[in-house]
Structures are given as structure tokens and as C-alpha cells.
Amino acid sequence: MDNLKIYRDSDIDKNIILGKKVAVIGYGSQGYGQSMNLKDSGCDVVLGLRAEGSSYKKAQLENFKIMEVEDALKWADIVQILIPDEVQAKVYKEQIEPNLRDGQYLMFSHGFNVHFGKIVAPKNVNVIMVAPKGPGHTVRSEYQLGKGVPTLVAVYQDFSGDSKEVALSYAWAIGGGRAGVIETNFKEETETDLFGEQAVLCGGCTALIKAGFETLVEAGYSPYMAYFEVLHELKLIVDLINQGGLADMRYSISNTAEYGDLTRGPRVVTAETKVNMKKILSEIQSGEFANEFLNELNSGAPKFNQLRKENEGHLIEKVGKEIRENFAWNSNKIIDRAKN
Ligand code: NAD
Ligand code: MG
Ligand code: MG
After folding, report:
1. Which of 32, 87, 229, 243 is deepest in the core (most CB within 10 A)?
2. Which pLDDT tens digit goes with each residue over 5-22?
3. CA of 111 to the centre of ligand 1 (A)
4. Residue 230: which pLDDT band, with cuts at 50, 70 and 90?
5. Which residue owns the Cα nearest ligand 1 atom 4?
């Protein structure tokens, strides 16, 4: 294992990014979080958006300079591509590639398209990544608190010879250097990111919550009690894990809970689960998942939409909505769908 090298604000030359023109393409979760932070850090930032696109009006609320994607490309030194992964290759071919010039920095927050060969940049540009390890809305809310989200940087292609310094400087501007920045490569970021969200953070976690909720409700317990037990409390437990690892969480819970954790946990996530995780990882590594996802999304997403609908209709969502509307922890929302 290599030693961990962490870059902080004090290791980073912020003047690099302050001296460059930055175009952010897309104003979704990451586009919103990163461009707002860039602006507040004093960067010269323009949004590249479709005039008819869904987020144009939201961006106007924040008084951004907005251009068509092609014009933003011509204006910028750095182009941060924050449109959905499934449309990046098409937008790249049609609107970005024809407008690239020597020495521009093409930037991503996920290595997906570059690593799987869906975007192949010409040799005369730099290809880099600055990827906050958190949702875009949190990139913004942490920055506003004077903090930041741990951030990855990577260099895929270094035409100008200073790609890493430029990536670090951009990471400073979005607040990453306040938390810490580490260097990785496109392959590692892409494959670990996909695995994490599929097996643990999103897929594994939501499947675990739903199975626990259904088990209690099917046994005749109140859905409200089940919601609190398996969904609401999860955050409180994860906060302890996030701060001090599994050990701090176990330090805080009762002996009863800890004994149940150590003896029953391995019956929920079994050796068979790990076999499935390895299969999921190999589908990511081979590109099978990437192709499945792109084919599905680019052919009208019938399966995806069906699954979304089924999940939105789940009892846990109905019960949760009612509970959250009637309890007090829900002020100061990070996500306001009308604005960000
Ligand atoms: P998103 O879906 O939230 O936002 C997409 C934005 O792109 C919107 O403004 C939309 O209007 C715009 N858009 C869609 N199609 C377009 C087109 N054809 N032309 C121009 N604009 C178009 O996207 P996101 O979740 O922020 O993801 C952006 C990138 O960041 C992806 O590479 C993703 O993997 C990466 N990433 C996202 C997160 C996250 O928190 N969501 C975290 C880490 C990395
Ligand atoms: Mg991801
Ligand atoms: Mg308990």
C-alpha cells in the first residue's frame, strides 16, 4: 500500500485557477455545487447550458453568465463537463470536440466516459478529473459552512505539463482543499465509484433498508416504527461511523446492540453476498455495466423508468413523507428542487 498523500489549501497554488477562464457545462447536482463555489472563490466562471434546458432558469436566479455550450468552449481555458454521463459522448462529439483548441483543459468529475473509451480526446488538450466525493448539493452546503468535501484529482493526459497543478487549484476553488484532496487515476476512480454506489452506498444500502422495513411490516409492526428503526436512525449510526469508524459506533451503542451487530450482521450479509459483490465488480471492470447503462438510457430507459416507478410507490416512501412533514429536524433543506 502506498503512503497516503493529502493536499490541503496550504499546498495548493490558488492563483492558477484565479487566472483562468472556467466553463462549467451543465447545472445539475455537481454543476450547481461546483459553479456556485467557483464564483464565491473569485473565479471567472461561465455556464454552458442549452437555452431550452431544464436548469437554465435556476442558473439565472444566481446571476451567472450563461452561454451556449459551443460559445462557452471557445471562451474557456478549462471546461468542466457536468452533464449526465449518458449524454456526455454525444455532446462531446457534436458540440465540444469541434471547438477544442491546443492546451485547453477538459475536466470531468467522473472518469466513466474517458475510462470506458466513449470519449477520446485529441492529443493537444489536457484531460483531468476533479471529483468531489459527495453529492453536488453537499459540495455547496459544506462550502457555505466554511468546510469542504474530500476530493479526488487525476490526470489522464497532460499536454501542457501542469495538469495536476491546475486540477489541484480547481479543487481549492470548490472547497476540496479544506477537507483534503488525494490523487488517483481515471481507472481507479471510475471502477471504485461505480462499485461503491452499486454494492454499498446506494444499491446495497437501499436494498438493506427496504428488506428490513418489509420484514417488520410483514410481521405486523407499525410502518411508522419500522421507518424510524431502519431508515431514520441509519443516519445517526452512520454519522458515528463516519467520524470514528466502526469502532466509535460500537463504543457508543449498548452491549446488547453490539452483541447483536457482531453475531447477526454476518447472517444478513453472507459469503454469498460477497460472491455477488465480486460479480458486480467484474461487470464494472469488463465494461459490461457501462454498456448496459448506456444502451438502456439511450433507448428510452423503459426498465429504468419502471424500476423508478415501483420504488417511488413503496410504502416506506409514503410513510417517510408523512413523518418528515410532521417532525422538526427537517428545516434548512440542502435540496430545494425549484432552485438547485
Ligand atoms: P445532473 O443529472 O444532476 O445534471 C445534469 C445537467 O446537465 C443538468 O443541468 C441538465 O440540464 C444538463 N444537461 C442534460 N443533458 C444535456 C445536454 N444534452 N446538453 C447540455 N446540458 C445537458 O448531473 P450530475 O449528477 O451532477 O452529474 C454530472 C457529472 O458529475 C457526472 O459525470 C457524474 O458522474 C458526476 N458526479 C456526480 C455526483 C453527484 O453528486 N450527482 C457526484 C460525483 C460525480
Ligand atoms: Mg458515481
Ligand atoms: Mg435500538
Report:
1. 32
2. 999 999 999 999 999 999
3. 13
4. very high
5. 28
Residue 137 catalytic?
Answer: no
Q: Is 176 in the pocket of ligand 1 (CB under 6 A)?
A: no
User: Which ligand is the nearest neighbour of the Cα of 230?
Assistant: 3
Which residue's C-alpha comes closest to atom 37 of ligand 1?
30
Span 54-65, pLDDT tens digits: 899 999 999 999
Atom of ligand 1 nearest to the CA of 135: 40
* For the chain, percent of residues with pLDDT exceeding 70: 99
How much distance in Å is there from the Cα of 326 to the middle of ligand 1? 32
In this prediction the pTM is 0.93
SS (H, E, C) the chain: CCCCCCECHHHCCCHHHHCCEEEEECCCHHHHHHHHHHHHCCCEEEEECCCCCCCHHHHHHCCCEEECHHHHHHHCCEEEECCCHHHHHHHHHHHHHHHCCCCCEEEECCCHHHHCCCCCCCCCCEEEEEEECCCHHHHHHHHHCCCCCCEEEEEEECCCCCHHHHHHHHHHHCCHHHHCEEECCHHHHHHHHHHHHHHHHCHHHHHHHHHHHHHHHHCCCCHHHHHHHHHHHHHHHHHHHHHHHHHHHHHHCCHHHHHHHHHHHHHHCCHHHHHHHHHHHHHHHCCHHHHHHHHHHCCCCHHHHHHHHHHHCCHHHHHHHHHHHCCHHHCCCCCCCCCC
If you measure from the C-alpha of residue 137 to the centroid of ligand 2, how many angstroms do you get, rounded to a whole number?
14
* Most ligand 1 atoms within 8 A of CB, residue of 86, 94, 109 to mutate: 109
Per-residue model confidence as pLDDT tens digits over 99-150: 999 999 999 999 999 999 999 999 999 999 999 999 999 999 999 999 999 9
What band does 332 get if pLDDT is binned at 50, 70 and 90?
Answer: low
pLDDT at 329: 67
* Ligand with an atom nearest the CA of residue 237: 3
